[in-house]
UniProtKB/TrEMBL annotation:
Statement: the UniProt record of this protein carries the keyword Hydrolase: yes
Keywords carried by this UniProt record: Hydrolase, Signal
Name of protein: alpha-L-rhamnosidase
Pfam families hit by this protein: Bac_rhamnosid, Bac_rhamnosid6H, Bac_rhamnosid_C, Bac_rhamnosid_N, Ig_Rha78A_N
Residues in Alpha-L-rhamnosidase concanavalin-like domain copies: 363-463
Gene3D superfamilies in the cross-refs: 1.50.10.10, Galactose-binding domain-like, Immunoglobulins, Maltose phosphorylase, domain 3
Domain Alpha-L-rhamnosidase six-hairpin glycosidase, residue spans: 469-812
Domain of life: Bacteria
Single GO MF descriptor: hydrolase activity
Signal sequence interval, chain numbering: 1-20
Domain Bacterial alpha-L-rhamnosidase N-terminal as annotated: residue spans: 177-353
Origin species: Pedobacter jamesrossensis
InterPro entries: 6-hairpin_glycosidase_sf, 6hp_glycosidase-like_sf, Alpha_rhamnosid, Bac_rhamnosid6H, Bac_rhamnosid_C, Bac_rhamnosid_N, Ig-like_fold, Rhamnosid_concanavalin
EC class (word): hydrolase
Amino acid sequence: MKKYLLLLLFSSFCSITIFARQATVTVGRTTVEGLHVMEGLTKIHPRLSWQIESAQRNVSQTAYQIIVASSMTTIGQNRGDVYDSRKVNSNQSINIAYPLENLLSCRPYYWRVRVWTSKGASRWSATGKWSMGILNDSIWKADWIGTEKILKTEDPYNPFTRLAARYLRKELNVSSKPIRATAYIAGMGLYELYINGLKVGKHVLSPTLKEYNKEIPYNTLDVTSHFNDGRNAIGVILGNGRYFTVRYSKDGGMAAGNAPSTHYGFPMLKMQILLEYANGAKELVTSNQTWKVTSNGPITANNEFDGEEYDANKELVGWSSPNFDDRNWQKATLVTPSATKLVTQTNENIAVKDNLVPKTIHRTKNKTYILDMGQNMVGWLKIKVRGKKGDTIILRFAETLKNADSLFLANIRSAKVTDKYVLKGTGEEIWEPRFVFHGFRYAEVRGLKYQPKKEDFTGRVVYDDLPTIGSFQTSDKTINQVYKNAYWGIIGNYRGMPTDCPQRDERMGWLGDRSVSSYGESFVFDNSRLYAKWMGDIESAQKESGSIPDVAPTYWKNYTDNVTWPITFLVIPEMLRKQFGDTVTYQKQYPNMKKWMLYMWDTYQVDGMVQKDTYGDWCLPPENLNIIFSLDTNRNTKGPVIGAAYYYYALSLMKNYANRLKNSGDYELFDGMSKKVRAAFNAKFYNREGGFYANNTVTSNLLPLTFGIVEEQNREKVFRQIVDRTLNLYQGHVSTGLIGGQWLMRGLSDNGRPDLAYKIATNTTYPSWGYMAAQGATTIWELWNGNTADPAMNSGNHVMLLGDLLVWNYEYLGGIKTDQQDVAFKKIIMDPYLAPALTFVYASTTSPYGKIVSNWKKNDENFSWEVSIPSNCKAILTFPVSSFTAILENNKKLTELNEIRYLHTEHGKTYVEVASGKYTFSCKLDLLQKP
């Protein structure tokens, strides 16, 4: 992320940081650094944000002034010829909506801000920039082009589809070098853009995925530096992606395994490039029938699941440079897209984010080589090889080994996960695929006739190009390893949508997998644009009736009308509000949420409840290490309990949304419904004699307890059942699946047993996250017994079973939590759980206001706590001592510090309010409240 820094005129040096990515508009996309804009409501109102960085304490903003200009020259003079807010008395520094409606399509805008604070006024910041996209369909002048001719080597209707990449090109003359050139490109299913022989941008596997029968995404790219005066050439390679769907059959049915059946058409291109010159002239270059196209290039086959095949002998040398001989290429033909609606891509593109070198290379008895990357990763191999012309190098990928000499591929199911490279025999050759990715730790290499070196292979780690904003470490190695595994699992499943797994013939956006996981992820990554975009995918997939699918985009057509998967459409907008201050997403989606709620009520309400459930407490730990699903009815939570409890939770969310939108009618509607559901739930499922719900599983008790269904006088009884079963029946281990696990760690902690949550977090025996790590896992398994269960469903890279673990790590062990009303960490609640076995916890996350740090340590005598609060924020800190005077900050009593205000002491804890700044607190260990 590019930062714009400026020293300010405070009594000591400070700085403002402007994030251009926070300039957000209804349609359009910034062209700086490949950053994106988000979708607004009905008007074009970019949202602007900045961060105030200061070495001083107690810095709070009192006013700001924003200027927006049409050129760098004008903004450099601190003039806003497009907009000048003048001085605005406000402490708001994030998500400030641009108030006018004077922004034009395809225009860059430059902005600066200055602020007034409690410590003085700043100078103008450095310049931020955003670019408007195509706001009116009439501006599109390009045609959809491609070719649907089939080569003899292609077999698009085979269940294992073979379709070569399409290469398209166009040459043109320009009278002078443009001062600005902007490309608007929709390449289905995937594209790479080249100008004058050079690839544009660092992104890969672009654009990211959509509901292609409803809308097609386009990217906006600044290509100014790529154009020369005189002769220029433009080239585009089109891969298949999810647009031309693998496993496709002529009748449109599902052809193999559990693979996608949705097919949208052959790869195609729509692009226009706006050239702007110093004399004010403009020129538009468009895709049309004057372009040339061929399928007879080196990428002879590509699809996401089966791999990519490349014949270096068919390379088209110079194909994207001027004066290439394309006489044997065809004229591009006009083609029909799957949808007419073009929309800007609102989330980050995918990029190569890291590189790994194999830890070991093993020569097998079959004269192949097996690489161990040392880490279960997602991406592909870049290879450096040599051999004779026509020699073929075959690469296959797996997460685990069957034995020392072979890969374990049973859990990959029907995916072939095989890349092929045919050498041209000209010495050392370097190659990597373009339109495929694999989930793997191990790779088998066939076809080499010599002993390779580790340096001949590079694991290209690929995921969405979003910022990593969090870090977390403790004195416990199990917690640390599980956090690392979670990190790698999350990045392995960021693909322009949150996928379930990256390795087998699935890779789908299951809604239920990320309901609460997205919340934990938000401490580690700025996933705000990714999840706002995904809510748009779900909106596109929603039926007119209101029904929401279990998978979005709907490459699998799963509309089972359960409650727990579609409710993600209601849950994630609340996460975006709390963690990032995004109020646009829930406002935009509110009518669609309401439509789903009423559809479910009208269709499935029985006895005052919606009890519809499909998946139960998915993937709870089975009693047998060799089975996938538990057969023990005492372990399985009944579906009606889950469905009814979650529908009540959905009503609570809708009440809050309606209240914020000042929609009193809807609030009364949902409040009345929730009262009916609560009464009916307790009447049907609560066992008053036993003090538990349904069949007394942890999940059946945890859900009503967490959602507020349990009557106040019964809460202690119900929680006692949760503790008893966890400690005695399951020996302190997790017994929940995907559903119960979303609330387990916080549910235990909030009701007085954080020690039991800590035990679950640090277990290394089955079932536990630590068990996975102890068995050598470097990501999170799909099953608690993923090393022994049936291969049909034991992905080694799922994050659904993380539940609320990452939330618990940050909010409870680290003690970093946003206030429910002063969201986005404007007001921070810091109350770490000082687990007896831990000697330190370091947690940090970068909020929209700046970096937050909680770093506590304890030894036999002392407790210390280093805290960083961003400027323009405040925090409520909780100390586990009953004496305010016992707490020191940098060896000073708190009564001597103006930045700290005593609030109250309660239950042996002292609460203080702290202004922005960096602090080091300490107190004697013998004064600590005993856990």
